[in-house]
C-alpha cells in the first residue's frame, strides 16, 4: 500500500502498489528526498498527535502466515524539522516504537504472524514528538509451512537482522518478482558483523528473528 498516494502503479521490480485514498482520516503529504526516487516514498499519510489510535484494517485468510512490513520516511513533511516518535501496534499488541533520527532515511519494521481472524489492524498512536505517519504498508501471504514455528499461536516473528553475505555495497537488495519469491519479499543487507541464533533461509543468506508475545484480547478503538 502506497500511503498518501492517489493512483495504482507497478514499480521497477514488479510490485503493485495501491493507494490508501479510501481512508477518511489523516492527511497526506508529498515529500522530496535526495537520492530517493522510488514513487512509493514520495508520499505519506500523517495523523494528529492525540490520544487516539489510527488504524489500517487489512483483509487476511485465517490460519495463514503473513509478512507485514511498514516503512517510514519523514522527509520533513510538516516543515517543522521535529523528528517524530510514536508507537505502531498490530491490534492490541505493541509492535515497535518508531524513532525518527534522520529526515532522509527510511525506518522499517517487519514481522511474520499467523492470522487468527479475517482481518488484521495496524495502528499508529502515542506520539511524544511530531505526528505519527506512515509511508508504505505491505502485507504478503506465505504458502505452506514457510516460517512455521511451534510458538506461532502466541508469538509473532520480528526480524532482528537479514544478511547478504559477500555484498559489495551497503545498499539493501530486493530481487525482481520473477526471481525466487521468498527473496523477492525480503530486503537483504550487507554483513557488518556476525551474530548467532539465525534461522537458515537460502544459500548465501541468513535471517535472525526474535519472538514477541502476541496479545489476543480484543480492544475497541
Describe, in plain words, how this protein is organized in 3D.
By secondary structure, the chain is an all-beta fold. The chain has two domains: 9-141, Jelly Rolls; 155-213, no CATH class. It is built from one helix and 16 strands. The strands form four sheets. Strands 6, 9, 12, 13, 14, 15 and 16 form a seven-stranded mixed sheet that branches.
How would a crystallographer describe the biggest sheet? 7 strands, mixed
How many H/I helical runs? 1
Q: What's the total number of strands?
A: 16
CATH architecture type of the largest domain: Sandwich
Global geometry:
globular
The CATH class of the largest domain is identified as Mainly Beta
Overall domain count: 2
What is the H/E string? EEEEEEEEEEEEEHEEE
Low-confidence stretches: 178-184, 187-209, 211-221
Radius of gyration: 17 Å
**Termini Cα gap:** 22 Å
Structural class: mainly beta
Classify the helix fraction into a percent range.
under 10%
CATH fold-level name of the largest domain? Jelly Rolls
Percent strand equals: 35-45%
Overall mean pLDDT: 81
Secondary structure: elements and pairs:
Layout: E1 9-10, E2 16-17, E3 27-30, E4 43-46, E5 54-59, E6 65-73, E7 85-90, E8 93-99, E9 106-114, E10 119-129, E11 133-134, E12 136-141, E13 155-164, H1 181-184, E14 189-190, E15 198-200, E16 205-213
Parallel strand pairs: 13-14
Antiparallel strand pairs: 1-2, 3-4, 4-11, 5-10, 6-9, 6-12, 7-8, 7-10, 9-13, 13-16, 15-16
Amino acid at each position: 500500500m502506497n500511503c498518501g498516494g492517489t493512483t495504482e502503479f507497478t514499480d521497477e521490480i514488479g510490485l503493485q502498489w495501491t493507494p490508501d485514498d479510501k481512508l477518511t482520516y489523516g492527511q497526506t503529504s508529498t515529500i522530496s528526498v535526495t537520492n530517493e526516487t522510488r514513487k512509493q516514498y514520495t508520499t505519506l499519510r500523517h495523523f494528529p498527535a492525540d490520544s487516539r489510535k489510527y488504524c489500517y484494517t487489512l483483509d487476511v485468510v485465517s490460519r495463514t502466515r503473513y509478512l507485514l512490513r511498514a516503512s517510514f520516511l519523514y522527509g520533513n513533511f510538516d516543515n517543522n524539522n521535529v523528528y517524530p516518535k510514536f508507537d505502531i501496534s498490530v491490534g492490541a499488541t505493541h509492535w515497535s516504537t518508531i524513532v525518527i533520527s534522520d529526515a532522509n532515511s527510511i525506518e522499517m519494521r517487519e514481522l511474520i504472524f499467523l492470522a487468527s481472524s479475517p482481518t488484521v489492524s495496524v495502528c499508529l498512536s502515542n506520539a511524544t514528538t511530531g505526528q505519527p505517519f506512515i509511508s508504505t504498508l505491505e502485507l504478503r501471504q506465505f504458502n505452506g509451512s514457510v516460517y512455521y514455528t511451534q510458538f506461532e499461536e502466541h508469538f509473532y516473528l520480528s526480524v532482528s537482522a537479514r544478511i547478504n553475505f559477500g555484498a559489495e555495497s551497503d545498499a539493501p537488495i530486493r530481487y525482481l518478482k520473477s526471481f525466487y519469491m521468498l527473496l523477492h519479499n525480503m530486503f537483504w543487507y550487507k554483513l557488518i558483523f556476525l551474530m548467532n541464533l539465525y534461522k537458515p533461509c537460502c544459500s548465501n543468506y541468513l535471517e535472525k528473528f526474535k519472538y514477541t508475545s502476541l496479545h489476543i484480547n480484543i480492544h475497541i478503538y
